[in-house]
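Lab notebook, bench 4. The sequencing result for the construct came back, and we need a structural model before the next group meeting so we can plan mutations. Quick request posted to the team channel:

Model the 3D structure of this chain.
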Amino acid sequence: MPLRGREQVDEVSKSGRGRGLERYLASVAERDIDLLLMEEFHISPKFVEWFCARLGIPDAAADGAWHSWSDSDGETDLLLRATIGETRIGVLIENKIAAREQDEQAARYIRRGNREMKAGLFDRYVTVICAPARYLEGLPEDSSYQGRIAYEEIAGWFGRHDDPRSAWRRRVLEEAIEQGRRGYTMLVNSAVTAFQEAYWHYLRANHPRLFMAKPTEKGNRSNWIVLKALDFPKGVQLHHKLDQRVMELGFQQTRVEQVLAVQPKQPEGIQLLQKGKSASLAILVPPVDVTGNFEEQAVAVEVGLQAAYRLIPFASLLIHRD
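Done. Here's the predicted structure in token form:
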């Protein structure tokens, strides 16, 4: 009788034991889980119905799913739009394996949800974090995510389906759960490392007013370049956020109200934003792919650096605020 589902995957694994082949994946990245979930959202109505029901949204149908939905306030790992009748519901998903949460990350999800709802992308929304159960148990009690779904639950859903595809997805999730138990270890990305090194050399050759620490080896998530200029006050930095298409001047431990008190009107093209415990002046710039070839994107990088020069005069804006 032919093997099916998880039995088939396990049998293949057994055949490799003793030869170092029992693990098919050296590691699982958060992006791997992002794409696994997004594929299910696109092709499996039953999975969408189950996932949404876990969030108190019964009888939902998929109406699109997007990966890495970004704006100047950050990034939503996955955006699922579901419908119940004529009502469109946005499901904003943060996905974690072991990496620490960023400052006010859950609150920024709510802000993005409110903005997109006002823009008409959906009629209401819910924010959710997906992660191993152990990670979710470590979240503070006042975490503002409106829903939590453990990897173990998702793996269990796949485990109830007796086919090789579902068995494989369960296996990937179980590896991510185990990886989360071990904790976060950065995997060096040679393309990202090469890009940041090229950025550093370009800056030294063409922009002596701007300073960047010489890059060390970088991982997949090294999407920001931290810059300073001569005589910058303490706690003020420039961030070229390549993945968010923005150049920001950040003031640590500052509220936007403090900036408005001394600069009530921002120049055209400059936004004032609250980023966690920092207030930032931001300029939208062209996208840059940190995994791509630097030379092919040098023009876009240069536009970003010219935006930095527009922001530099504001670095001392709050120097006498005390």
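The longest strand covers residues 61-71.
Will bring this to the meeting.
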